[in-house]
Amino acid sequence: MKSLQAKLKKEFQTKAATCVQLESIGGYERIRIWYHETPVVTIFKNEVSLNNGGYETATTKSRINQVLELLECSERVYQKSGTWYISRLDAADVPFFNHAKISLEKSED
Questions:
Q1: How many CA atoms lie within 13 A of 108 on its CB side?
Q2: Contact (Cβ atoms closer than 8 angstroms) between residue 20 and residue 14
């Protein structure tokens, strides 16, 4: 997780109001990517949780998609006619909802 944290910190070091935080929870580590006061992405136990905190902004969507791309996930968040969706290669797109989970196929150290 520490190497992933370092990659994420490098990716977001010049991005305004964005920080990367590594935490220990019950013997496990998790990484949270915060935009302002909202943890927009949480990585925990080979799962990614997405959250916009009710702020459907282009920058929030961009931060989420930057993390998904860095993690080599095929999913992306996009907006159509004012509604957010999660695109998936293996299934139909679904409306975005907070705390949506995406499984990571490979484990990070």
A1: 24
A2: no
Question: Residue written as tokens 């992933």?
Answer: 4
Q: Where exactly are the structural domains of the chain?
A: 2-103
Q: What are 20-76's pLDDT values in tens digits?
A: 999 999 999 999 999 999 999 999 999 999 999 999 999 999 999 999 999 999 999
Six token digits for residue 50: 């997405």
3-state secondary structure the chain: CHHHHHHHHHHHCCCCCEEEEEEEECCEEEEEEEECCEEEEEEECCEEEECCCCCCCHHHHHHHHHHHHHCCCCCEEEEECCEEEEECCCCCCEECCCCEEEECCCCCC
